[in-house]
Amino acid sequence: MMHGSQKLLGAFGGGGLAGVAGMLSKLGVEPAQIWAWVLSITEFVGGVCVFLGFLARFWAAGLVIDMAVAIFKVHIHNGFFAGKNGFELPLALGVMALVIVLTGPGSLSVDRATGIEKGGAG
User: Fold this and answer.
1) Is the pTM of this model over 0.85?
2) Which own/partner pairs from 83-91 qualify as long-range (CB within 8 Å, at least 24 positions apart)?
3) Does 120 score more than 90 pLDDT?
4) Number of independent structural domains in the chain
5) Which residue range forms the structural domain that includes residue 86?
6) Residue 117 lies in a domain
7) Within a domain: 94
């Protein structure tokens, strides 16, 4: 959510969509403008929706893919530790998102309150 706001809105010192598109282009991810939108919306809107438990499995699946791409396109060559821009943080976030995909949202989620999810965690 916070990293998504940096990408989508340029908040918290983020580079906004132009910065994301530039980074993606340098990584060889094209069309960079379209993928910048997809990435930014997934991280920001997906982060908010997972936090609220609204369409949680759908958005969490998108975040799993997002973090996998981040690991293999950006962080893998920097080693494990986050302090050196390694893959520690995207791995942790991706695993947490995967747990939501597999177990569903918790009992206080919008999905559970509205009947979108009948079971799930907690």
Assistant:
1) yes
2) 91/67
3) no
4) 1
5) 2-112
6) no
7) yes
